[in-house]
Amino acid sequence: ASPKALMSMNFAPLKNDTFLRALLRQETDYTPLWLMRQAGRYLPEYRATRKGAGSFLSLAKNPGFATEVTLQPIDRYGLDAAILFSDILTVPDAMGLGLYFEEGEGPKFERPLKDEKDVMALKVPEAGSLQYVFDAVTQIRTALDGRVPLIGFSGSPWTLACYMVEGQGSRDFHTVKSMMYKRPDLMHHILRTNADAVATYLNAQIDAGAQAVMIFDSWGGALADGAYQEFSLSYMRDIVSQLQKEKDGKRIPAIVFTKGGGLWLEQLADIGADALGLDWTMNLGQARAKVGDKVALQGNLDPAVLFAEPEQIRKQVIAALDSYGKPAAGHGHVFNLGHGISQFTPLESVSVLVETVHEYSRKQRQS
Ligand code: CP3
Where does the entry annotate site (Transition state stabilizer) (predicted)? Predict the structure, then answer.
């Protein structure tokens, strides 16, 4: 066997597979949960590690630090999955765009795609340029020692293109949408390249030890109906079709999350993913009725609920679990927030959330 195959055979057996079972729409004793951005600035231990490392990028690019911060929320709370500590923008960074962060600001690129020449020069990153990510995946999976599954992830081709063309985050996506409508040929060239890069990237994360993968389409919801299908959905379908479905005899579920994608739920359920992420604008019960037994659902508490008092948090969590209803054969629910957890979230609120999801969902199954 190759050294890689030997390495994956050495991972400890999984002690808690509740998350994977829910994604695959198998029965579970309770509703599993994890939180988008669960390793982050709301945790004092994260802020301490980050201070020592110097910056977010020096954390993300160092597998030892990435392992440490990935495990922090797992150690503090009884979450049911770990997510690789990294960022969606590692891929365009490896394409040569020069990712950087200025203190107190979001991500930026030194060399955004400004014109046809930039776009036509774009290439799938060289093998090796993202090796630090795959090393982190293997190191995290080893450190988890089978406690919970490890999620790998990437951005969607469209969401990556937003940052690559705008050069940073945007309120209205003026530059990237202008290119999309004026020069759809250029936009399709970027998206085609991104889709191949992402498929290769996710498959390499699976080879390195990721047990599920998630595609973040954070800005798909900014697109018009019609444009969404052409410029975001179709490329996610293409990626899902390129993903390896099994590793070491275990199914590797794929989750797709279009923030603001509620209108397109039925179409999303048809692209071959195992589960769909939902933002907080959606009604879980109605979403479940729409997708039937095609896909599991993941979501969708408003992250702002965590700023309320414990009693209110409990009420809102129970309302979400009741809205989804009692899981039945062929259905699956993974509890999560509707978007990333805020850096200002009180630590105690997360304890209340985790306890309530676990306790109430067990009771729900017995009723
Ligand atoms: O969920 C996790 O705990 C895993 C880690 C993770 C990060 N980014 C770490 C991070 C994941 C899954 C992401 C995905 C990501 N990154 C997305 C898609 C999800 C979403 O939120 O819609 C996007 C759009 C990005 C791009 C990005 N990276 C932004 C907009 C920012 C700034 C936001 C902020 O909170 O400051 C980042 C930086 C970033 N990525 C941080 C973390 C923990 C904050 C870095 C820090 O200052 O320590």
Answer: 87
Query: Is 192 an active-site residue?
Result: no
Q: What is the CATH number of the domain that holds 346?
A: 3.20.20.210
- Checking if the pLDDT of 78 tops 70, the result is yes
141 is catalytic: no
Task: Give the pLDDT confidence of 187-239 residue by residue, as tens digits.
Answer: 999 999 999 999 999 999 999 999 999 999 999 999 999 999 999 999 999 99
Q: What is the maximal distance between C-alpha atoms in the chain?
A: 62
One-letter amino acid of 357? V
How many separate domains does the chain show? 1
Is 87 an active-site residue?
A: yes
Q: How far is the CA of 87 from the centre of ligand 1 (A)?
A: 6
CB 218 less than 6 A from any atom of ligand 1: yes
- Is 41 marked active-site? yes
Is the interface score ipTM higher than 0.90? yes
* Residues listed for the chain: 367
Atom of ligand 1 nearest to the CA of 105: 36
Closest Cα to atom 36, ligand 1: which residue? Answer: 106
Which segments are annotated as binding site for substrate? 37-41, 87, 163, 218, 339
Domain span at residue 355 reads: 3-366
Decide: 160 in ligand 1 pocket, CB within 6 A. Answer: no
The pTM of the whole model exceeds 0.90: yes
276 pLDDT more than 60? yes
CA 357 to ligand 1 centroid distance, Å: 24
